[in-house]
Amino acid sequence: MSLEPHQLDAKGKHAFAQKNFVEAANYFRQAVDGYTQGRAGLEAAEAKNNLSVALLQAGKPQEALDAVIGTEQVFAGAHDIKRQAMALGNQAAALEGLHRYDEAIKNYELSADLFGSIDEGDLRAMVMKSAAAIKLKTGKITRTAGGDRAGK
């Protein structure tokens, strides 16, 4: 008996909670396929985001990035700003895992702007903290209007 995409998604979330990231990724991948075949675009995009997080936790940042690319556009088209921002944050995390720091910072900041536009202060702070950590680690501290380094 074959499982419905939402059942596969639930199994993926359970496996993720148990820290079985490879198993979770397999379930999320199957859910993506099922949702895509059923033309359930938002659900497929959500499953791709879940897949991305599981793959990143499994130490596979390139696969995580590949899974999440384009989902932000699906959510933007549906005017789902929160999930759009989350997708950008997931992309940023994968880019960070690939040491593509400039791109990661850009996506974290785009995510933060979207979270800010919908009053999601905690989520905004989380992605801004991630961007700041990369800037600190790489020496890419933003200069203030007076030309001094921020935090000096």
Report on this model:
There is one protein chain. With 152 residues, this protein is mainly α. It has eight helices and no strands. The termini are far apart.
Number of strands: 0
List SSEs in N-to-C order. HHHHHHHH
How much β-strand is present in the residues?
Answer: under 5%
DSSP helical segment count = 8
Main sheet specs: none
Approximate shape:
globular
Which runs of at least 5 residues are low in confidence (pLDDT < 50)? 143-152
Q: Look at the structure and give the mean pLDDT.
A: 89
Summarize the structure.
This protein has 152 residues and is mostly helical. Helices cover 75% and strands 0% of the residues.
Question: How do the strands and helices of this protein lay out in sequence?
Answer:
Elements: H1 5-17, H2 21-37, H3 41-57, H4 61-68, H5 71-77, H6 81-97, H7 101-117, H8 121-138
Q: Main attributes?
A:
mainly alpha; disordered C terminus; 152 residues; 0% strand; globular; single chain
